[in-house]
Amino acid sequence: MSTPFYVSPQQAMADRAEYARKGIARGRSLVVLQYADGIVFVGENPSRALHKFSEIYDRIGFAAAGKYNEYENLRIGGVRYADLRGYTYDRGDVTARGLANVYAQTLGTIFSSAAEKPYEVELVVAEVGETPEGDQIYRLPHDGSIVDEHGSVAVGGNAEQISSYLDQRHRDGMTLSEALKLAVQALSRDTNGSEREIPAERLEVAVLDRTRPQKRKFKRITGRQLARLLQGDDGDASKDATGVDGPADAADAGDTEEK
Amino acid sequence: MDFLAQHKPELLPGNRQLPPTQGAIEAPHGTTIVAVTFEGGVVLAGDRRATMGNVIAQRDIEKVFPADEYSAVGIAGTAGIAVEMVKLFQLELEHFEKVEGTQLSLEGKANRLSTMIRSNLGLAMQGLAVVPLFAGYDLDRDKGRIFSYDVTGGRSEEHGFAATGSGSVFARGSMKKLYREDLGEEEATTLVVQALYDAADDDSATGGPDVARRIYPIVTVITEDGFRRLTDEETSEIARSVLQRRLEQPDGPRAALL
After folding, report:
1. What domains lie within chain A, and their CATH numbers?
2. How far apart are the C-alpha atoms of A203 and A184, rounded to whole Å?
3. Predicted TM-score (pTM) of this structure
4. Beta-strand relationship, B50-52 and B41-46
5. What percentage of chain B carries pLDDT values higher than 70?
C-alpha cells in the first residue's frame, strides 16, 4: 500500500484557495453600488439566459461571479431558504444577514472539506433598506468569510483594480444614472490599464429600488430604459416599465406606458 | 422517523386518523365571490362577511387575494384553511418564478390550485371545505380567464362570469341578466358590486355594503398591467351609486323580457 505524501494543512488550504481564486478570476467582474434610491447591480454578461443577478426575496438581491453551475446551486438554495423563512414566520423576518450567514456556512464547509473541491464562486448578498442607512451589502469570498461592505463592491476577475477605482469615485446619494455610468467605466478598464467599450446589450443590470410600490423591490433594467440611463437621462426606474423583462418585474400596477 | 414511517405510519403527525365529529365543525365560513371577464381583463370581487353558524364572526374579513402579479384567488369555505391554502399558493407561484426565472402559465397556476384543493378532501369531508375561484390575465392569449373548482379539486374554466360560495346562486342569477360581452372595466366593476348586493339580499351569510361602518366589497382588477385592488374610495363610490339606485328600485336593474 502506498503512503500518501505528507502535505501540511497550511499548504493544503493555500492550494485550495489558489485554485478557487483562479477559477473566480477567469469569470467576468461585476459591481454592486449603492445609489440614492437603492442598490444597483452591474456586470458584463453576454448571455441573456444565464443571469448573474437575481431576486432572492422582497428586499434581497444576489450577485455572483465564478462558475455558473455552482452559484446557481447556491442561488436556488438561497431562494428556498428565504421563501421557507418568510412562509414559516413573516416576510419581514427574512434578512440579508441571515442569508449571508447560511451562505458563509455552506461555502466554509465546502472549502474545508477534503472530500469536495472548493467552490469557485464569490457572492454578494444585498438588502435594500427603507433609507440608504438601512442598506446592507455583504461580500462572500470562496472560503466562507463574510465582508460587510459599504458604498461599492466589486467581485470577479479584476476585482481589486475595479474596487479601488470605485472607492475613489463613489459617493453617497448618487443618482441611478450616475451610479450606472460609474459602474460601466469601472468595468471597462482592463487589467493592463487600457479601456474598452462595453455595449449596452452585453450589460446585465438590475436594481433593488426602495421607491417601488410593490413589496418585491428587485427589478431588471434592460432595453430602452438601460440605454436612456446610460445616456444620462435619469428616468425614474420605479415609474418606468419599458424594457423590463421577467414577469416579476412587469409593469407596475396602475402604471400606464406607451407600447 | 424513517423507521416509524415504515412500521407504524399512522403514528406520524400527518397521518393520524381524524377523530369522528358530530355534525359540522363550528369555524368561520364565507361567502360570495364573483368574477367577470371584460375586454382587456377580469374582475374578481368578494363580500366581507364571515359567519359561524348563525353568528356573524367578522364583518370586514378579506377573501380576495393576489396570487401573483397576474392572478388572484377568492376564497369560499372555511376561512382558516382557505387563507392558509392561499398563502401556500402565493408562495409556490413566487418560488417557481424566482427559481425558474419565468412565470407559470395561467393553466399551470390553475392546475396547481386544483391539486391543493384535492389534498384538502379529507378535511372537506369533515365539513371544512375550501372552494376558491381563480381569475387571472393570460399573457399568452391576451385575455382575462376564470377558473372555478369543486371540493374534489375538479377544475373548470368559466366563460364570461362565475360565482362561488353560499350566495353564489343568487349572484349568478344576477350576473346572468346583467352580463354583456362588451363590458368595459368600469361596467364590470359595477356589475360585480350589483351581483354581490343581490347575493347579500337573499343569502344571510353574505354581507352587503355597510355604509355605517364604511365596509365595502373588495374589488380587484387584473389586466395586462397586472393586479390592482380598487382603493376604498373607489369601491365606496361604486357601492354608494349602486345603493342609491336601489333606494328607488330595490331589486336592481331590470332586464328586458324579450
Report:
1. 26-248 (3.60.20.10)
2. 9
3. 0.84
4. unpaired
5. 94
CATH code at position B39:
3.60.20.10
Residues in B closer than 8 angstroms to A240, CB to CB, are none
Q: Write b or e for each residue in B62-94: b if 16 or more Cβ atoms lie within 10 A of its Cβ, otherwise e.
A: ebbbbbbbbbbbbbbbbbebbbebbeebbebbb
Q: Does B233 touch chain A (CB under 8 A)?
A: no
Q: A253 — contact with chain B (CB < 8 Å)? A: yes
- Residues on chain A touching B67 (C-beta within 8 angstroms): none
- Residue B157: inside a domain, yes or no? yes
**Beta-strand runs (E) in B117-249:** 133-138, 143-149, 155-158, 161-165, 218-223, 226-229
Q: B254 in a domain, yes or no?
A: no
So which residues of B are the catalytic ones? Answer: 31
Cβ contact B47:B207 at 8 Å:
yes
Task: Please answer yes or no on whether A254 and B98 come within 8 Å at the CB atom.
Answer: no
User: Are B94 and A83 inside 8 Å of each other by CB?
Assistant: yes
Cα nearest neighbour of A81 on chain B: B95
| Cβ atoms of A38 and A128 closer than 8 Å | yes
- Residue B215: inside a domain, yes or no? yes
When divided into structural domains, chain B yields a total of 1
Residues of chain A under the 50 pLDDT cut: 237-259
Q: Which of B99, B224, B228 sits opposite A79 (nearest CB)?
A: B99
Q: Which domain holds residue B78?
A: 26-248
**Residue B3 falls within a domain, yes or no?**
no
In this complex, do A247 and B225 lie within 8 Å of one another by their Cβ atoms?
no
pLDDT tens, chain B, 258 aa long:
778 788 887 777 777 666 666 665 566 666 899 999 999 999 999 999 999 888 899 999 999 999 999 999 999 988 889 999 999 999 999 999 999 989 999 999 999 999 999 999 998 888 888 999 999 999 999 999 999 999 999 999 999 999 999 999 999 999 999 999 999 999 999 999 999 999 999 999 999 999 999 999 999 999 999 999 999 999 999 999 999 999 999 999 998 888
Please check whether residue A250 touches B, CB under 8 A.
yes
Residue of B nearest to A90 (CA): B87
Min Cα–Cα distance to chain A from B103, Å: 6
